[in-house]
Amino acid sequence: MTKNETLKSWIEQYSKPLLKRAVYVLSDRIEAEDIVQEVFIAAFSSYDSFEGKSKPLTWLNTILNNKVADFYRKKYKSEPEIRLDHFFDETGSWKNNDVLNDWDASNKETELLDNDDFNKTLEDCLEDLPSRWKIPMKMYYLQEKKAPEVSQELNISTTNLWKILQRSRMQLRECLDFNWFAKS
């Protein structure tokens, strides 16, 4: 089978699983489609380096992960400053100390994660985060990358990453409190 025939076969076989993964990680179908196209372009360019020691989908997923990391790295560096005035007043004190208290979800975490409406609300709240917070959140929690890896890819310190994740969780919590739990 020629290089072109093989790649055509891979596109037919693996476009859907790659797109599904890309949409999950990026939460944007248009961006995901672009990334998957880039994956196949990269696969075509480096086809000769594919030794067949792994399945083609494994190799393509590795390319996808690298493309997603490049996407987030580029997007992360291009975003302007993040405003914290939503949480802190002029003196740097918390505006609302409730975010520091334990969150009572009535031990229904499993029930909530099986609820499509809750998942939609969670996804909307995640998308409302500033890009500089959303990107590390997705890399750490959705892509399940380790903190040092996320820090290295985004060129930030691990301490900064932990602070970003903490602030992101607080904003997600407030969004969910308002958009889900207050309505329950």
Structure overview:
This protein is mainly α and 184 residues long. The chain has 8 helices and no strands. Helix 6 (131-142) crosses helix 8. The longest helix has 24 residues, at 3-26. The model has no long low-confidence stretch (mean pLDDT 83).
| Share of β-strand residues | under 5%
Distance, first to last CA: 58 Å
Helices and strands, in N-to-C order?
Answer: HHHHHHHH
Which class do the helix and strand fractions yield? mainly alpha
User: Which blocks of ≥5 consecutive residues have pLDDT under 50?
Assistant: none
- Amount of helix: 55-70%
Give me the Rg, rounded: 20 Å
Number of helices: 8
Tell me the total number of β-strands.
0
Please outline the major beta sheet: none
On the 0 to 100 scale, the average pLDDT is: 83
Shape: elongated
Write the layout of secondary structure elements.
Elements lengths: L2 H24 L2 H17 L10 H23 L30 H5 L2 H12 L3 H12 L4 H8 L3 H24 L3
Helix pairs in contact: 1-2, 1-3, 2-3, 3-6, 5-8, 6-8, 7-8
Overview in brief:
With 184 residues, the chain is mainly alpha-helical. 68% of the residues lie in helices and 0% in strands.
